[in-house]
Amino acid sequence: xxxxxxxxxxxxxxxxxxxxxxxxxxxxxxxxxxxxxxxxxxxxxxxxxxxxxxxxxxxxxxxxxxxxxxxxxxxxxxxxxxxxxxxxxxxxxxxxxxxxxxxxxxxxxxxxxxxxxxxxxxxxxxxxxxxxxxxxxxxxxxxxxxxxxxxxxxxxxxxxxxxxxxxxxxxxxxxxxxxxxxxxxxxxxxxxxxxxxxxxxxxxxxxxxxxxxxxxxxxxxx
Amino acid sequence: xxxxxxxxxxxxxxxxxxxxxxxxxxxxxxxxxxxxxxxxxxxxxxxxxxxxxxxxxxxxxxxxxxxxxxxxxxxxxxxxxxxxxxxxxxxxxxxxxxxxxxxxxxxxxxxxxxxx
Lengths: 222, 116
Known about the structure:
The complex is a heterodimer.
Chain A: E1 5-12, H1 15-31, E2 34-39, H2 46-57, E3 63-69, H3 74-80, E4 85-90, H4 99-109, E5 116-120, E6 137-143, H5 150-153, H6 155-160, E7 163-167, H7 179-189, E8 194-197, H8 206-221
Parallel strand pairs in A: 2-5, 2-6, 3-4, 3-5, 6-7, 7-8
Helix pairs in contact in A: 1-4, 2-8
Chain B: H1 3-20, E1 26-34, H2 41-51, E2 61-67, E3 69-72, E4 79-82, E5 101-104, E6 108-115
Parallel strand pairs in B: 1-2
Antiparallel strand pairs in B: 1-6, 3-4, 3-5
């Protein structure tokens, strides 16, 4: 039997994705298009937040949306009905988007004249946190019915995001969700994260969020 | 939850090195994976066994070294290790400051492989 020898590999398993993601950022830097990756569990309000955002920003910014869904066109149709350019990536059984899939979305959207593109990632708090999509900013939503203990269960997601949107604050009075406890848990993991409370249902708290987006786009275009 | 795409990448890298090194068979693969990742060792091996059928890496055993979660204190910059369960109450062992930013614990790395 042949002798066993050791070969050094020393490679990042996700090296390909990291490279493609860096390429996405570089390409969008040239067209001055900011890319935001929106992540959350299923049903936390990603589509609702995008629709609210479009309503506030469509007159001042040129927007595009990349929708990921297991196998339906529902979300892209809702977004397109608002007069915003949208593409739906059918991810099949995939639990996350990677930078190659996002590249396909960017190609299909024809982003060169867009100021801001929002990716609606697959609803999942685990896998999307591991794969760089090429976005300039990572944003997540946690909705009140999910509970304030989620940072303990999904610490990586809370660690990698620039902004946490706490949605469905209209449910607060019906729930034992403790906003202060949540803040402490999240800030312990990620001291620089910006936390905003909104209700996509009644529209409260949307202004600070869209203002943050506007400021970030302006900064990005400098 | 995303063992399958990760395992596909592992196999891709392993086969690339197997070919360039004129390997007849890959016997073992040594991986370093951060403790923050949600991967189940058992499933990575199962997917690997399935995907590697008929390749040079068929039958290779994956050995996974779990890399520690390291945090950095926002106040005194001391770095320290924690377990997943310790993330709720992060306290700097040097100055007592609470919280910290993540330094490492997300690794996905192929260290080396045993071949014939």
